[in-house]
Each structure stands twice: as structure tokens, then as C-alpha cells.
Amino acid sequence: MRNARRNRFAVLLPVAVLTVLLWFFTAVNELDAGQREQGRLQLEQSLRRAAAASYASRGEYPATLDELAAQSGIRIDRENYAVFYEAFASNLMPDITVLVKET
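Predicted structure:
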């Protein structure tokens, strides 16, 4: 009887440990994904605000993303985010899209 209980415990302990580890790594992964999405939103909003500020002060939107970044001082994490900046005309708000790159 005692050996049966010991054998059952020897089987259940590794299963329980693996379950807890799997849950932990899933939670950490979800937290990281949430932080990256929050960073994406903040970067996109910052770029839009900087473009609007540039238009207010200069009377035109920056022609390129590099020009906008240089004027505003915004650092773009190109390793984690893909930024698409399409300027149609100097008096129209550019289309700014920020996407999270898959790792």
C-alpha cells in the first residue's frame, strides 16, 4: 500500500511541476505581448502628435519618417516595430501605421 502511494506521488509530482511551469511561461509570454502592444500604441500616437505639431509650427507635414523622427526626437525601435509612413501631400496628414514585428 505504501509503495503504491509512493509510486502515485512519483508520477504526479513531475506532472504537477510541468503544469505549473507551463502556466508560468504562458503568463510571461502574454505579459510580454501586452507590453509590446502597448508600446506599439504609444509609438503610433507619438508619431501622429509629432506630425501634427510639425504641421502647426511649419505649415507642412514632414515628407518622410526619418524627417519626422529627426524633428521630434522620437526614437523608433525598428527591431520590434515596423513603421509605415505615407505622406500624400505636405498639407494632408500622413498615414502612419505601426505594427509589432514577430519574434
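Summary: Residues 2-100 form one domain.
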